[in-house]
Amino acid sequence: MKSSQQPAPSTRLRLRLSPAAEKAVKSGHPWVFSESVRDQNREGRAGELAVIYSRDDKFLAVGLYDPASPLRVRIVHSGKPATLDAAWWQERLRLTLAKREGMFTAETNGYRCINGESDGWPGLVLDRYAGTLVLKLYSAAWLPRLEEVLEWLSAALKPDGIVLRLSRNITETAGRDFGLQEGIIRGDTEETVVFTENGLKFEAEVIHGQKTGFFLDQRENRRLVSHLSAGSNVLNAFSFSGGFSLYAANGGARRVTDLDISAHALAAGDRNFALNKTVRAIADCERQTVRADAFEWLASGPKASFDLVIVDPPSLAKREADRAGAITAYERLVVSALRRGRRGGVLVAASCSAHVSADEFFGAVERAALPWNTRRLWTSGHAPDHAVNFRE
Fold first, then answer.
1. Which residue from 33, 44, 203, 226 puts its CA 20 to 30 A from 131's CA?
2. 300-310 burial, b if ≥16 CB within 10 A, otherwise e?
């Protein structure tokens, strides 16, 4: 790994913020945007620690600085001053991993170890798939610190291999300034790793797959679907690699239909079902796949065909400006899904659009369901290993 970084400056980078941003930092918010910086003593470099002071020159917080990002500082510590040396970071890692202790049985070896800002590691996510760790970076501020991070992870978790994944916004910087690209960066692993979740086997495409290779955040919702599926004819729209379908089959569904526009995703579902063919309930479940645009297929197909309909679309709001359109799209999608369900059936609707709040999403679902005689069975939030502590 190369680096274009120059020797560290002798003076600590010091920042002062707008009154609103100062208030947000005091309240524990982990982000400082570029337009909120009112004063700084010098130019900052990616990855260096920026110390934030109040208007009356009192320490507020310290964070990772990123001069190329509108999200200028990602807070890692606030309150009383502290020395953020290697021992400090190693202790933070120990505390982060300790949160997951006892969270999973031996039947689950795929889960999130570090959930970014919410675990005090802003812009950094770490997922485990059996013996493989997948480290995904969302901020260039971590690039100069990568070797240190890898050492800490290797010592604490002793993985077989570590895979590096990069957010699109930092890929060019990673290659140009640090000689980094996505792939195996420590130890040894395969491009596709098999892991277990609640006793079921799944593939994770750790190098080229979406996110870190699998959607671990839906684990608890998949388990709930399993309990609702006995004897049912199930439609899994936006099925991706068939996670909900596999749980439904394991829960006793008589038939599952995977609907996705991606042939690659449907093939991944084939392989996940094959991995679990020795499970009697899964082997007995009839499965079919439909390659089509799920929005169009749901809107145009025959009515009242399924006992359980699952709609888990990709993000419908990539930006705040997309929020209103996404809410309307969720309503239309739920209407189409309800038309596919039989009387007395169940709809499972999910959202992963960060710009659409939970209340807005649930409101859209309930407005769409108003003409039907429906009742809410449950609502869920983030999985325990994906817990969040700030609005965004």
1. 226
2. eeeeeebbbbb
